[in-house]
Small ribosomal subunit protein bS16c (Origanum majorana), 86 residues
Amino acid sequence: MVKLRLKRCGRKAVYRIVAIDARSRREGKDLRKVGFYDPMKNQTYLNVPAILYFLEKGAQPTGTVQNLLKKAGVFKEFPSNQMKFN
């Protein structure tokens, strides 16, 4: 199963949003980088077409990533009958 989760980068709290196999560790090899999140500056960059692609294929976002996607309005572009989250 594929998950959309945060992957820490650098010494400060800066994260990439990645599509990764659910069995791999947080810093493991990702399938694709689909976004960036900096909680200190409250900046978010999302590659929406890539995120929608993985969601259509059945990827499950973690709780934090799901909140970020809701804030950005990504789920408005995703058909509601396909939303099956934890």
